[in-house]
Amino acid sequence: MGTAIKMTVEHLRKAIESNSAAFRLTLKLEAVSPKVFPPTYEGGKYAIEERMIGGTKFPCVLLDSTPSQANRMELALQDALDGGVIEIPVVSVDFSGVENLCIP
Fold it and tell me: Which residue in 2, 41, 64, 102 is a FRET match for 27, CA 20 to 30 A apart?
């Protein structure tokens, strides 16, 4: 992982003008209330990951996942595209002319 830099408006301006695809943000969050209700998965289990905190591994309950975030971003981008808010290239493929598509 690279060295963190302080983000400025100029960094954002240059990124928008270039081919930058994403920004990465790391921050510590604190629960608003003492209880946190993580999502549960099949069988009522929580998703657990090991995290390094102060050089020690701790089991931590996963509150959100990269795939879940990607799904939300995909929906937000689609809504913005459908609403005419943004213009992005969209690639689509029509397989209707391909015979026996499901046969290996």
Answer: 41
What's the rounded mean pLDDT across residues 48-58?
94
No. of helices (H) and no. of strands (E), the chain:
2, 2
Report the pLDDT value the prediction gives residue 2, as an integer from 0 to 100: 60
Structure tokens given for 17: 């003008």
pLDDT classification of 82: cutoffs 50, 70, 90: very high
C-beta of residue 62 within 8 angstroms of C-beta of residue 49: yes
Tell me the domain boundaries of the chain: 39-67
CA distance 46 to 36: 12
Of the candidates 4, 13, 68, 79, the one whose C-alpha atom is nearest the C-alpha of residue 39 is: 68
First to last CA, the chain: 41
SS3 61: strand
Q: What is the pLDDT of residue 42?
A: 77
Average pLDDT over residues 39-68: 87
The type of residue at 53 is I
